Structure formats: C-alpha cells, structure tokens
C-alpha cells in the first residue's frame, strides 16, 4: 500500500489553487517531476498531501490502483483537488497554478516566453536523464549521459542565461522574479546531484550557481530543506 504524508498548513495559496492537493507520486525521496510540483506549493506556502508509491508496488498500482482511473496515460504525478478535479502533466500544472497564483510566470510577454523556453529545454533534458538513470544498463548509460547530453544541456542553459538581457538582471531566469521554470531547472540540477555537497560538477557554471543559491535562499524553500520533510 502507498503511504501518505502531509506538508504545510492550509493557506491563502491553497485557496487560490482550489484547496489542498493530494499528490500521487513515487516514494522517490524529494525528487522527480512530483517534487517540482511540490516545490511550487512549498514556495508559495501551500499545504499538500502526498500519496507515495514504492517502485516495487507501482506496476500493480498502475494496473489497478486509483491512478489508472484518474490518468489515461497511467503516469504520475496525478493530483486530486478537493472539488474532485484531477490534474495531470506536471508542467501544465505549474503553468496553471502560476496563473491562479498570479505569480511564477513573468509579467511581460517576453518574460513569459523566456520562462517557457528555458522550461522546455529542461523538459527535454529530464526525459534523457530519466532514461539513463533508470536504464537497465545504468552503469554505462548514466555516465554517458553525464558526459554527453547533460553537459550539452547545462552548457546551453548557462549560455542562454548569460546572453539574455532578461536573465542578465539575475538571479532568476527572467531577472528579479522567480518563475516556475526556475523551480523546474533547480529540481533537475538537484536530481542530477549537482547542487549537493561540493558541487564539483557545477563549479564551471557560475550563472547556474547564482540561480540555485537564490532558489535555496527563498524562505519557504530554505525551511523545507532544513526540515525532516526533505528526503534527499
Ligand atoms: N509529461 C508527464 C510525464 C509523466 C511521467 O513520465 N512520469 C513518470 C514518473 S516521473 C511515470 O509516470 N513513470 C512511471 C510509468 O511510466 O509507469 C508529466 O510531466 O507529468
């Protein structure tokens, strides 16, 4: 059986998004697409409930558990809202909540475009990361990914952030205001184990370090990382 956890206290941010969401996702530490969704809730001060599936129980749950009925693609994260609304597709959920919260997606058309563009790069990167990290041949495929695709994406994003008039204002992708895309980028760097410890693999990317540190310094995110709710 999946186990459940809860985080936070119901707040105005919950009201804006329609209540306290129940998130169905893997019991995969504080990682993955499910964690990106949690991260926006954490940052905005919203509470959530977690239903966490172990990797072992997932195949059976996928066949006959509640997710099978809620999401035709059979993927997670899947969210249940108190009014019965089901939300699927992590990036669409982030964009939906950004509009509901009136934050996280920039103000001008140029800012919105730029946040979406950087997010889309990370979408492509994460897909390749997952394929390599969960490959049956992980021992060979993941190091190949780190040297190949991961390098290519990190270099591209660092170059974009240094070259864009918006990003140059820093520390975030569009300047002073955080966007959902910063959370998406932060989380893939976290999941690739690049922001923990000595950060040896991140050293040559000063603009990404600036962004990561700005995200980690956000009060609600800092509180989460300093708490026992953060699972690594
Ligand atoms: N585009 C979807 C992708 C969802 C997805 O592929 N989720 C993975 C976990 S991160 C999954 O469901 N894996 C288990 C499976 O496919 O059975 C999203 O962003 O939500």
TrEMBL record:
InterPro entries to which the protein is assigned, alphabetical: Glutathione-S-Trfase_C-like, Glutathione-S-Trfase_C_sf, Glutathione_S-Trfase, Glutathione_S-Trfase_N, GST_C, GST_superfamily, Thioredoxin-like_sf
Biological process per Gene Ontology, one example term: glutathione metabolic process
GO terms, molecular function: glutathione transferase activity
Protein's recorded name: Glutathione S-transferase P
PANTHER family: GLUTATHIONE S-TRANSFERASE
Residue stretches making up the GST C-terminal domain: 108-232
Species classification: Eukaryota, Fungi, Dikarya, Ascomycota, Pezizomycotina
SUPFAM superfamilies: GST C-terminal domain-like, Thioredoxin-like
Domain annotation GST N-terminal: ranges: 21-105
């Amino acid at each position: 059986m999946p186990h459940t956890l809860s985080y936070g206290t119901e707040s105005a941010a919950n009201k804006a998004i329609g209540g306290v969401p129940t998130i169905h996702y893997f019991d995969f530490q504080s990682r993955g697409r499910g964690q990106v969704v949690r991260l926006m809730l954490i940052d905005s001060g919203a509470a959530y409930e977690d239903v966490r599936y172990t990797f072992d129980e997932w195949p059976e749950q996928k066949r006959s558990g509640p997710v099978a009925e809620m999401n035709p693609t059979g993927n997670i994260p899947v969210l249940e809202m108190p009014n019965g609304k089901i939300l699927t597709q992590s990036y669409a959920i982030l964009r939906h909540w950004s509009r509901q919260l009136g934050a996280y997606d920039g103000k001008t058309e140029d800012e919105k475009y730029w946040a979406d563009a950087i997010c889309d790069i990370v979408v492509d990167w994460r897909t390749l990361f997952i394929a390599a990290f969960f490959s049956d041949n992980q021992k060979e495929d993941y190091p190949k990914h780190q040297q190949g695709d991961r390098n290519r994406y990190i270099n591209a994003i660092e170059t974009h952030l240094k070259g864009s008039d918006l990003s140059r204002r820093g520390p975030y992708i569009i300047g002073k205001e955080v966007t959902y895309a910063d959370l998406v980028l932060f989380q893939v760097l976290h999941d690739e184990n690049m922001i923990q410890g000595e950060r040896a693999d991140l050293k040559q990317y000063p603009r990404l370090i600036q962004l990561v540190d700005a995200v980690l310094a956000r009060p609600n995110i800092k509180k989460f990382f300093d708490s026992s709710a953060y699972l690594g």
